[in-house]
Amino acid sequence: MMEMRRKVGLCFLGALGVLGAGCGADDPSMTSQQGTGGAGGVDFITCAAETRATPYSAGMRETSISGAWTVKLLDNTFVVDGKALSEAPAKGTDTWAIEVDDATGKPTDGVVTGVSPWMPDHRHGTTPVMVSAAGAGTYTLNPLYLYMSGYWEITVNLTGTGSAADSAMFPICVPD
Ligand SMILES: [Cu+2]
Predict the structure, then answer these.
(1) CA 131 to centroid of ligand 1, rounded, Å
(2) Structural domain contains residue 85
(3) Is residue 118 part of a domain?
(4) Which residues have CB less than 5 Å away from ligand 1 (the ion)?
(5) What sections of 68-115 are H helices per DSSP?
(6) Half-sphere exposure in the Cβ direction for 54 (13 Å, CA)
(7) Residue 79 domain-assigned (yes or no)
(8) How many CA atoms lie within 13 A of 33 on its CB side?
(9) Domains identified in the chain, total number
């Protein structure tokens, strides 16, 4: 039964045409060689074995590449039966509230230029993430459509303090 659920999860978007590559007979996730999480066909969805990810906690933070910004994941919410629950990222449409602080710790508006989720094991992203300013250096990311379980890299793109762009990345595992 688990195997059936997983294959449906992998492929329903492909059937809808949302995905380009990444679903079908050549999907690397269908093979036992895929991933770094384990040998011998260990299920890549097992988050306990996903050493690349940082376990979710509200308020978790990542420093940008340049060191100029700190991005805090204030809260993840996920809707179940019409009710928004504050919990770890789950498979489906999540919503993030984030805050961006400058090097002095001051929350700063107007610096998030976009958000790019990516599954490096499968080399695909997801549908566009809408970013809306929520004031006082906070931003709402909705939808953040994490439609597959497994390892995701959620990159928050930021304006640079100089000419170069900047970014901060959250390594997240979505359980099955
Ligand atoms: Cu994937």
Answers:
(1) 22
(2) yes
(3) yes
(4) 119, 122, 148
(5) none
(6) 13
(7) yes
(8) 3
(9) 1
